[in-house]
Amino acid sequence: MPGDVHNWFEQGGGAYARYRPNYPDALARLLAQVSPDTRMALDVGCGNGQFSCQLGNHFDAVVGLDPSADQLAHAVSHERVQYRAASAENLDVADHSISLVTAAQAAHWFDLPRFYEEVRRVCVAGAKLSLISYGVAQLEAGLNERFLAFYKDEVGPYWPPERKLVDGGYAELAFPFRELLVPRQNLQREWDAHAFLGYVSTWSATQRARVAGKEEMLAAFSRDLLASWGDPNRPRTIIWPINIRLGEV
Question: For the segment 156-170, what is each residue's pLDDT rounded down to a tens digit?
Answer without folding.
Answer: 999 988 899 999 999
